[in-house]
Amino acid sequence: MKKTLLRGLLNVLPLVLSIWLFWSLFESLDKVGNFLFGLFHIGKLFKGAGFLLILTLLFVAGLLFSVSPIAWLYDFIIRQLMRFPFFKTVYSSINDIASLISSDNKNKGQQTVLVRQANDSYVIGFIMSDDMPAPLTAALPDGDWVPVLFPLSYQIAGVTTLVKREDLTVVDWSFEEAMKYNLTAGISTPKNNNDKTQKETDDTADKPV
Questions:
Q1: Among 146, 202, 155, 145, which Cα is nearest to 175's?
Q2: Is the separation of the CB atoms in 106 and 126 below 8 Å?
Q3: Would you state the pLDDT for residue 19?
Q4: Taking the model in full, what pTM does it have?
């Protein structure tokens, strides 16, 4: 009975928490939108009207930022505000997190690799970018160095290590699946995925060359 209850909890809890999180976000944005309606003396229209207003404003903002003068003005204001140390610290932190979760800024060439350790064990890492900053290139010995990320908590925390490309073992594995495996030590990897991979391997081996 305990195992059945635990199984039910582990399956239902992620769904409930996800729905609660998105509902809380919806409610918060809806309240902000209704507040903006109130500034123009517009009463509450219907549930979700404020949320739709916020989405519309964000869409318009996205269009405006595609116009060079608006983007230049925004960058100018940000540069002026960055002169204040406290604002610079807060803004930089939030902006870095936003850049991590933004699909537009994701490097489509993220590569899963294995890095050999001194005791002949391997650590899973990810090449996030092939570009090395000039100061690092000048300071490092000669060689093809690349930054390898060893994530600790869903890309929010991690250790960046500079490794020679020749010391890396490239793995033909998608970034998302490798990240999930790396962060959960394989616990969240469905068994049927392994069975499917094994089946595909067996089918390939049975095919005539």
A1: 155
A2: no
A3: 94
A4: 0.53
Lowest model confidence (mean pLDDT) among 17-21, 71-75, 157-161, 184-188: 184-188
Residue 38 CA to residue 43 CA, distance in Å, equals: 6
If one counts every other C-beta atom within 10 angstroms of the C-beta of residue 51, the result is 19
CA dihedral 167, 173, 179, 181 (to 10 degrees): -100
Could you give the CA distance from residue 42 to residue 99 in angstroms, rounded to a whole number?
35
Q: Which domains does the chain have, with CATH numbers?
A: 2-101 (no CATH), 111-188 (2.30.30)
**What is the Cα 20 distance to its own chain's centre?**
21
pLDDT tens-digit series, residues 36-57: 888 888 877 888 889 999 999 9
